[in-house]
Design a protein that fits this description.
single chain; 255 residues; alpha+beta; five-stranded antiparallel sheet; 7 helices; 7 strands; 28% helix
Length: 255
């Protein structure tokens, strides 16, 4: 199944979950959502980051002759933010590792159910006050809330707490310098509440992406149309797939 077909099926699946989630909320259950955003064809000018762009399957460590997969290849590190503001980490180096780390940290910190918190966070990490990423992402939060029967604006329902865990990443440069990158991520999302401290049915293996640009000494999130037009959807991620490894998917190291 190609990526766009998978994305269409994911959107359809999410569209019919509203009724079930409303029932869960009514009974004190757990709300957990993710999203998939499709991309367009990559610009011929876009290139792989030299640190991330392994395009051919390599033998596995130890000389076994088996092709590497995301699960058998060394995991990639993710740096901690040097600072934080408005509930989101900031301060990442001007490197491929820094860009990858920023994307993972932002995605794990961003609120996807509290529109006001999300707006504060997005204005902190957006490439500029007028960047469309702020309006776009806040609108997504409000539409999600309405889709499950909540008021369009407000905090988490029933004092729920959500945790996002990014498991794998795929980084590609959208310019010749590596100053604008698209980072795809595979993640799980968990929810807990005062009544239920564990999530028996977490949302798993969701796929989404951020576009980051190096600006004002940090990696910033952008949705400027001229960069969005250069983005591309990835090959489907599977931890045991050599083709996913070829496409640049790497598992994230714990911690």
């Amino acid at each position: 199944m190609d990526y766009r077909s998978k994305a269409r099926r994911a959107r359809l699946r999410l569209s019919v979950l509203g009724t079930a989630v409303v029932a869960l909320l009514a009974t004190g259950g757990v709300l957990a959502f993710g999203s998939v955003e499709g991309g367009k064809s990559r610009s011929p000018h876009a290139k792989s980051s030299p640190q991330e762009g392994a395009r051919s399957a390599s033998p596995a460590p130890g000389g076994t002759g088996k092709r590497l997969t995301p699960a058998t290849a060394p995991r990639v590190p993710v740096l901690k933010p040097k600072s934080s503001k408005n509930g989101i980490g900031t301060g990442f180096p001007h490197t491929a590792v820094g860009a990858r780390s920023a994307a993972v940290s932002y995605w794990q910190d961003l609120s996807f159910v509290d529109d006001q918190a999300a707006e504060r966070q997005l204005r902190t990490i957006a490439a500029g006050p007028s960047d469309p990423v702020v309006r776009k992402k806040v609108s997504e939060v409000r539409k999600l809330r309405e889709g499950v029967g909540l008021p369009p604006s407000g905090g988490p329902p029933n004092s729920m707490t959500f945790t996002t865990d990014v498991k794998a990443v795929r980084l590609r440069s959208l310019d010749r310098k590596g100053d604008v990158v698209q980072v795809w991520m595979v993640f799980d999302r968990y929810a807990t509440s005062a009544e239920k401290s564990t999530d028996d049915n977490p949302l798993e293996d969701q796929t989404d992406n951020l576009i980051l640009t190096w600006k004002k000494g940090d990696w910033k999130v952008t949705a400027q149309p001229h960069w969005v037009r250069r983005t591309a959807g990835p090959r489907a991620y599977a931890p045991d797939s050599p083709y996913a490894f070829q496409d640049g998917w790497r598992e994230v190291a714990d911690g």
